[in-house]
């Protein structure tokens, strides 16, 4: 029997309306190689504002992760671009490349088509991998980078060594591309410190049917491509000023990976740890998240942080305040500060 109402489809329509009312328009760019990218771009680009690229993580399309609580704040200060990455939303490819490097190249070509030459980039979870690759490949185009809870410095061996709650890539794919209400609930438990209470199965089934039934195998391949054979020694160091933001209770990409990335980049990066929040801190602590983004992305208007709102600790081996799955995340090798917000 055909269902007469979809909560997910209704919310998706509302998000489209919200993006449009925020001054963005929907575009589709055919890159000419079998790849098509959907992207929200400014209806009117203002030359006096910096260009900001927002890259989403796994889940639904980009709208669900960047609006409506985040996007309206950004459009006051930036020309905002919000693409659907390949195999999400209305973006797809017939090519076989599943790397974050390929995703970054696609996004860069879309920005070129929109006459954007210099940009600031925020990448959330999987989008953080793409943002990092974008910064590594197109150094002159990327001014500043924000990596949000993205395990860029993970290694394939971390799975076998117990850093993650999953033991292999197949289990990770089952979790991140859920196909049943039970898997959806498991993902929410891992993503939130306080998961939504008693979400009805009918709502979860509706979400899966509307948002998670296309490109299932391709998305699983994206996950495999992230970790297969990945070694820290082969990850380039990006030169741009970088902010790393992490939830201290993240169970998808444990906090250890945030500190590992900080060590990898050294003094070129600042690390902000949001306390009592998990992988979904963009939902759990939206205002706190946005505050740090604005301070970093618009440094010319940055006030001195209030000592009542942040605590800065020296990043030395003696500053251990938490552990993740038996790993000590605070054993840094340089003396640049780490900001822990309450």
From TrEMBL:
One of its GO terms (molecular function) is hydrolase activity. It comes from the Eukaryota. Residues 332-342 have a biased composition (Polar residues). Coiled coil: none annotated. InterPro entries: AB_hydrolase_1, AB_hydrolase_fold, Meta-cleavage_hydrolase. SUPFAM superfamilies: alpha/beta-Hydrolases. Gene3D superfamilies: alpha/beta hydrolase (3.40.50.1820). Transmembrane segments: none annotated. Residues 52-289 form the AB hydrolase-1 domain. Residues 318-342 are annotated as: Disordered. This is AB hydrolase-1 domain-containing protein. It comes from Deinandra increscens subsp. villosa.
């Amino acid at each position: 029997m055909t269902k007469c109402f979809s909560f997910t489809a209704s919310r998706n329509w509302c998000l489209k309306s919200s993006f449009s009312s925020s001054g963005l328009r929907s575009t589709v760019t055919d890159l000419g190689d079998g790849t098509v990218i959907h992207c929200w771009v400014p209806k009117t680009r203002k030359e006096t504002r910096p260009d900001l690229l927002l890259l989403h993580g796994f889940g639904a399309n980009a709208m669900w992760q960047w609006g409506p609580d985040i996007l309206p704040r950004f459009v006051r200060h930036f020309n905002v671009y919000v693409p659907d990455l390949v195999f999400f939303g209305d973006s797809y490819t017939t090519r076989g490349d599943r790397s974050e490097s390929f995703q970054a190249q696609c996004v860069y070509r879309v920005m070129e088509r929109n006459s954007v030459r210099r940009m600031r980039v925020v990448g959330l979870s999987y989008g953080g991998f793409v943002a990092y690759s974008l910064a590594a490949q197109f150094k002159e185009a990327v001014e500043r980078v924000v990596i949000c809870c993205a395990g860029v410095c993970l290694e394939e061996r971390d799975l076998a060594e117990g850093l993650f709650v999953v033991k292999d890539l197949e289990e990770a794919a089952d979790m991140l591309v859920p196909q049943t209400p039970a898997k959806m609930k498991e993902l929410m438990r891992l993503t939130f410190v306080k998961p939504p209470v008693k979400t009805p199965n009918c709502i979860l089934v509706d979400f899966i049917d509307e948002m998670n039934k296309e490109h299932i195998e391709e998305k699983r391949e994206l996950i495999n491509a992230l970790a297969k054979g990945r070694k820290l020694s082969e990850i380039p160091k990006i030169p741009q000023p970088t902010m790393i933001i992490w939830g201290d209770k993240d169970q998808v990409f444990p906090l250890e990976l945030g500190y590992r990335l900080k060590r990898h980049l050294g003094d070129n990066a600042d690390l902000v740890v949001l306390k009592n929040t998990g992988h979904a801190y963009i939902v759990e602590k939206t205002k706190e998240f946005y505050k740090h983004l604005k301070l970093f992305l618009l440094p010319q208007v940055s006030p001195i942080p209030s000592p009542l709102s942040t605590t800065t600790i020296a990043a030395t081996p003696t500053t251990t305040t938490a552990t993740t799955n038996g790993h000590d995340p605070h054993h840094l090798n340089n003396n640049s500060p780490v900001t822990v917000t309450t």
